[in-house]
Coenzyme A biosynthesis bifunctional protein CoaBC
Amino acid sequence: EEQLNKRTTFHKKRILITAGPTKEKVDPVRYFTNHSSGKMGYAIARQAVQLGAEVTLISGPANLEVPAGVKHISVESAADMYDAVMEAYPNQDVVIKAAAVADYRPKHPFNEKLKKQGDNLVLELERTKDILQTLGEKKKHQFLVGFAAETTKPLEYGKQKLEKKRLDAIVINNITEAGAGFSGDTNKVTYVSKSGNTIDLPLQSKNDVAKAILQQVAKELKDDR
Ligand code: CTP
Ligand code: CA
């Protein structure tokens, strides 16, 4: 197996990574979010620095230490993340979208604390913009890697996302499998490239998953030339 050359693998490459959940405001004291811890994205950022990349990490609220050498941009909502990602995008060589972005947000967030009234409450939600879909549509030279969190038919749904969002690769996460998913320190993923190359990675630490993903990205970037 080809050994990765530390510090030179991604020499002069700019890698943008998104991580963590987003937070969508309901009123001044409440919000919608999800179970993403940010650990997977932060691990990718840490490993990418080790491999010599210039790393920008755009993350929603995560309780994690930012790895040394990483340019960190902290955001809250899906809309904030969209703006930060779009601004950074033109300069990037690789984008890895590990963030768990809200698909919907309250359509009319309240400026005053919502008082309880009645037995039921209906909140209207509206779709957020799909950041990764937009990156796919605007893609020039960038190598685009998405994540897919699935509870059923992971390979089928993951491959659909790869095509629909015009990605170069997708990391498919079956979040119902033991040791996989949002909050733990391990993960079990399948890497699928647009050429159809499918790699089932073993259950391992998120750091090792990050290494394996970056190794595969490096290989595909090299094969591209
Ligand atoms: N994503 C994004 N912007 C959104 C929603 C998702 O950039 N508004 C990105 C995620 O960061 C991830 C990929 O799209 O890299 C797939 O996210 P996922 O939630 O698995 O899929 P969706 O396309 O949102 O479809 P669904 O949730 O309906 O399965
Ligand atoms: Ca989604």
About this structure: The radius of gyration is 18 Å. The helical segments are 39-50, 78-88, 131-137, 154-164, 206-224. Residues 16 and 95 are 5 Å apart (CA to CA).
